[in-house]
Amino acid sequence: MASLFQRRRSKATQTERVRERRHEGFLRYANFRWAKISGGLCLLIIVSYALIDVTPRPSGGTWYGYTLGTIGALLILWLTALGYRKRKMTSDYWSLKAWTSAHVYLGLSLIVIGTWHTGFQLGWNVHTLAWVLMMLVILSGLYGVTVYATLPAALSNNRDEMTQMQMLEAIRAFDRQLHAAAQPLTPEDTAPVLAALDEDPFAGGIMARLSGRYPRCATAAALGALRVSRSSGAEAREKVVGLLSQKEAALARLRQHLRIRALLEVWLYVHVPLTFALIAALSAHIISVFFYW
Amino acid sequence: MSFILRRISTTKTGKQIIRDQALPGDTITLGRDAGNIIHIADLAVNPQHAAITSADGRHVRVAASEGLGFDFNGRTVDAADIDSAAGAELRFGGHRLTIAREGDDIILLVERIDELSQSSKDVDEAKAFSLAGVMPGKRMGAWTFGIIVLLAFLIGPIWAWHSFRNVDERPQGYHADMAWSSGPLSSAHANLKGDCQACHVEPFVAVTDKACVGCHTGEHKAMSMAHANAPTAMLLAARHPPGVGERILAGFAKTFNRPQGRCVDCHTEHEGAGPMPATPQKFCADCHDGMKARLIDAGFKPTVADAADFGTLHPEFRPWVHAAPGAKPIRALGKAPLDYNGLKFPHDIHLSATGGVARMAASFRGRYDFGNKLECENCHRPESDGVRMKPVEMERDCAMCHSLAFETVGGVTRTLRHGEPDQVVADLFAYYRSTPPTRPLQLGGMERRRPGAYAEGQVYNIYFREVAVRPNRAEDAVRAVFSKGGACYDCHTIFAPASGNRWRVQKVVQSPRFLSKGWFDHADPGHAKVECATCHTEAPQSKRSEQLLVPGLAPCRTCHVGENGATIAKVKEPTRSSCAMCHEYHSDGGKPWMPERERKKKVAMVTDRPPREVYAVTAITGPARRHLYDVTWRTPVLGFARQGG
After folding, report:
1. Is the backbone of residue B455 left (phi > 0), alpha (psi -120 to 50) or beta?
2. Which residue of A has its CA nearest to B41?
3. What is the SS3 string spanning B462-488?
């Protein structure tokens, strides 16, 4: 018996190795197994909804509505469990990849389960609030899947085989050089250079991170000021200008890196808090139904 | 006395190396420029920033030479006098100059205290490069949103319920548990929208009938008579055997404390504003489809035929009829039933476009609302609500043509008393006793006479003989009235007396409602727009009044189809008809549900805002008579009510 399990286990490990070699992501995991299961579930629901004639009219309060609602609520709780599951990695049965694949596709099927559960009756109430939160969570997740599929390439291109600390280190090096090179400059020329040195490369709020636009960038301002300034010696100034433009390029790379990372991460700041808001709304929704039975 | 510049450098292991260097001269210059005695490579320091002098070898004066000052004890100053024994800390840009005294020497310690640049500062890589640095934490967001939702949509509503637990009626305004409403209430219950507890009395207890009858006192019987009088065993036997799904549902209903058979099973709420939706056909068909066989199997005698869907399975109507003259009304069986109502009335003659009746009607065109011939509505008048027809009344509906006049006194026509044969006899006797025969002109009468004295004696004799026998003529007149050709005999069945004058007339019985279980509304717009003969097809050919002209199922089915559109034959403009359109369950005499598309029309009239003119009138007349004008905008509704609602 033990050997039987042993064999099956080693087979699973081998399959996993093949997958690793093929670089199979969570989207195409096991040849879209969960996409097929989820699609079949959606189709089943849509067809049965059309065929089953519930009275007086389709709503969450019919037997069909309760069935879909129960499936949906359990599914939401299971989907939330990914946050717990991802902290406990295993590689064979129910690997995190398998779990994530199921999370994505079953999560998408919730659009059909949840919406068809409503019987297309929406209003200004806690029930529709739960539906709206669910849809927002799903849409943010959909965004997340999309950026996970598209942005890592851009991130890698921008990195140019540097680590992010190396990017920062480059800026630090330019700062040191700038500091040394700016020593001969007159006070009016050193002020913008000082401001450039004083600039935090991680400054800027969420909007600057997402847009990648920093209109009050001190380095760019210093570059502009020194190019037109005539107060210091031309040689020293040109050296500083050269260093400033190099720093600007390094800063741009870092900022682009931060932007892509922000785009990759921002959906989680919607997905996770709204999931808990959804679970709260879902609890209120279910309790309210039984409370005013 | 001399100035000593002290530099401290830190090795990688953290060990400090102190180097002292005696500075020449009494005036020490300090600045970014390399020519200074103390050279500080700091961009925030001016090329010639300050001069440090000491007159007595103890007190030190530091004076800034250019515009930029320095920080001394937290303030920016241009010059400072310092007792080196007490010591001081000065700040030039990112550097700190500490002045101290060791023996006779004044120690100047210069250190960089600020980072060279912002980017040089240490960063937490995980935080700085991710959004964690600029966004509030996900965990905090999750807690915040979760708690807000729970407070607003769970704790709040339960609190609202708790605080009004023992209150009869909640005050107007918003209550937190209104967020739990799954949909708008029907228009009848719209005023309860803030008062959830009006129906949902106890938590976790499904709405009970008690909540309904709290307001619906009396006007609704709990069940129809037929269902209420039936033994429970029979009602249970009538139900169709539950399928697997229904058994599961019943199990769930029991588990979750949701008993079946409550008012709300049929009268579902929160299904949207507007009138409450009609009870679906399924609630009736659950039992009535195939019920007959089930009842027979269970040993009961079925009294109604199976019905499942008006379009496909519905028994033929069984109107109330009097199967024989004077018989008690029974439900008709079979096709072409006869109803002996006691009258003689050939519909074909009266509705004919030609012949005496049509001619007479045409001659009365100015006096009555007749056309070139008689129409149904000339004799059959609708009830005030328009739903059904009033019983025909002789004086109102027949007497236009069928006059009972027998004498004119001073321009007033005297008529025989209808419905009272004894009075007719008495009136005729009185007439013959009290009036002489018409006096001939020869005897002073008013009639024209022939020229010459023509048979005067004869006339005299005839007249006075007539006067003598006139009272006896009454009997002949009475007989004539009640016999063939007489006024009564034309329409009524007469029972002649064996002797004397006790003439009797067959009692007329007109059914006020032939189809007592179903509801037919003559004033319904859909019905009113078609000719009577569209449904009462046999009326124009009917020769005998016994022939019942109440339409059967077939004319209805030319428009009405089943709830889901099921039909036997093709219908051009189908009206989907559930059971509840014609049948009412509670037998409270009210009107059953009407079809959806008409319901909408009327709702609009009730719920639409009143037109501006209504307020304009109110503005002129003032608010005192407000109620008078309040109703103006509802007139269309009342108009509908006049036609039958």
Report:
1. left
2. A183
3. HHHHHHHHHHHHHHHHHHHHHCCCCCC
Residues 161 to 180 of B: which have CB under 8 A from any A CB? 161, 177-180
**What pLDDT shows up at residue A287?**
94
SS3 at position B23: strand
Tell me the nearest-neighbour CA distance from B208 into chain A, angstroms. 10
Strand B320-322 and strand B329-331: the pairing is: antiparallel
Instruction: State the best of B36, B118, B192 to mutate against chain A, taking most chain A CBs within 10 Å.
Output: B118
CATH 2.60.200.20 domain extents, chain B: 3-118
Which tops the pLDDT comparison, A8 or B183? B183
Other C-beta atoms lying within 10 Å of the C-beta of residue A77: 11
Band (pLDDT 50/70/90 cuts) for residue B206 is: confident
Cβ-defined contact of B182 to A258 (cutoff 8 Å): no
Per-residue pLDDT tens digits for B20-39: 888 888 888 988 888 888 88
CA distance B379 to B373: 12
Residue A156 burial (CB < 10 Å; 0-12/13-18/19+)? exposed
Nearest to B198 by CA among B176, B220, B169, B241: B169
B208 sits in the region (left: phi over 0; alpha: psi -120 to 50; else beta) called beta
Q: What is the DSSP track for A188-244?
A: HHHHHHHHHHT--TT-S-HHHHHH---TT-HHHHHHHHHHH--SS-HHHHHHHHHHH
Ramachandran angles phi, psi of A259, nearest 5°: -65, -50
Per this entry, what is the length of chain A?
A: 293
Tens of pLDDT along B346-377? 999 999 988 888 888 888 888 888 888 888 88
Query: Could you give the 3-state DSSP secondary structure of residue A162?
Result: coil
DSSP secondary structure of B522-585: TTSHHHHTS-HHHHSTTGGG---TTB-----HHHHHTTEE-TT---SS--SS-EE--GGGT--S
Q: How far apart are CA A224 and CA A228, in angstroms?
A: 7
Phi-psi label, residue A247: left if phi above 0, alpha if psi -120 to 50, beta otherwise: alpha
Q: Rounded to an integer, what distance in angstroms lies between the CA atom of residue B556 and that of residue A2?
A: 77
Report how far residue B451's alpha carbon sits from residue B150's, in angstroms, rounded to the nearest whole number: 118
Chain A residues with CB-CB distance to B116 below 8 A: 175-176, 179, 197
Q: Is the ipTM of this complex over 0.90?
A: no
Pairing of strands B59-64, B27-31: unpaired
Domain B3-118 has CATH 2.60.200.20: yes
Considering the entire predicted model, what is its pTM? 0.70
